[in-house]
Amino acid sequence: MAAFPLPSSNPTHCRSSSSNPSPPGPSQPSLLVFSGGTAFNGVVEDLRNFTTRVAHVLPVSDDGGSTAEIVRVLGGPAVGDIRSRCLRLSDQNTCEALAVRRLLGHRLTPDPRQAKSEWYDIVEGEHSLWIGVSKPYRETIRAFLVYFQNQILRRSDDSFCFSNGSIGNFFFAGARIFFESLDAAIFLFSRVSDIPSDSLVLPVISTNNRLTLGCELWDGTIIRGQNEISHPSNGSMESINKVRSLVPELSSRIKRVFYMSSEGQNLLHEVFPAPNPAVLEQLSNMDCIVYAMGSLFTSVCPSLVLIGIGEIISSRSCPKVLFHQTVELYIVFGSNYQKLASLFLCRKL
């Protein structure tokens, strides 16, 4: 197996004017945040000025957009939410760090042909996005992009669509497949993007397999797939503005969220994946538990429904903060939304 170099985590090029996060130390409070990959991102950078001792717990079941195409062709867990949070936590204090962030945060054009052409320019190292990225970083990042491309070519029966593709997702997927480990891919991404050492990005389920989220409505309807729950589409690769999208109308309110089989004949079969042991460990020791804003049923609940998560939370007497959109809670739960808040903050969760 080939070995890829890890660049130094302290590039010394010109400094940006962005503020530095507070230096880590025991005086900083420690938080564990349950969230998705979009809505809470707006808080992340300001939160770093308060504390960097944060464990970000994210689902790996998002099956929309660029992630959907990766999962369709290469399988594995969804990496989009993980990649999104890693980029938000990445260093911005040097010109090179900003260049790396621009590269890994870049999205290809919606036009499939133009997207494929642009992708080849990036893989071959000829795209302008490489400007400002030093040779060690360039070699490391490009190696995993090339590996991702090779994996696509090996699946000759499946034509990959690069439309709206995320370069960060491609890098992340390449690293995960190479190491055969989601945790190793997160470690590599954290090093490349220079995330503070005491800030953790944790998949709620540590797996190399595809995960499928489902829900049951009160009228008995079963919906398969996270994207169909939160952002139903016509099957196109069109990019979704998750921040501004309204809660879609369903035929009935959601009764429960659960994980479904991703293989075999019975795709409606309920499965019970084990939570990431690292999440359970952090959950037992953090000073505060935060339920962040986002889609309640597709950002927060995919973590809470796992066996063992709720039990640890209910045993903790630490502060618990529900940071959510009242409008969405009212749409989903009607006049009972205040009881939901009580359930989260004062009782079982």
Overview of the structural elements:
40% of the residues lie in helices and 11% in strands. It is an alpha/beta fold. It folds into 2 domains: 65-197, no CATH class; 212-346, Rossmann fold. A 5-stranded parallel beta sheet has the order 3-2-1-8-9, sandwiched between helices. The longest helix is centred in the middle third of the chain and has 20 residues, at 135-154. The N and C termini lie far apart (45 Å).
SSE blueprint:
Blueprint: E1 31-34, H1 41-47, E2 54-58, H2 65-74, H3 80-89, H4 95-104, H5 112-123, H6 135-154, H7 167-179, H8 182-192, E3 200-203, E4 212-217, E5 222-224, H9 226-230, E6 254-260, E7 270-271, H10 277-285, E8 288-291, H11 296-304, H12 309-315, E9 320-322, H13 326-333, H14 337-346
Parallel strand pairs: 1-2, 1-8, 2-3, 8-9
Antiparallel strand pairs: 4-5, 4-6, 6-7
Helix pairs in contact: 6-7, 7-8
Shape: globular
Largest sheet: 5 strands, parallel
Task: Give the percentage of residues in beta strands.
Answer: 5-15%
State the helicity in percent bands.
Answer: 40-55%
Q: Widest sheet: strand order?
A: 3-2-1-8-9
Query: How widely separated are the two ends?
Result: 45 Å
InterPro entries: CofD, CofD-like_dom_sf
Organism: Parasponia andersonii (Sponia andersonii)
Pfam families: CofD
Region (Disordered): 1-30
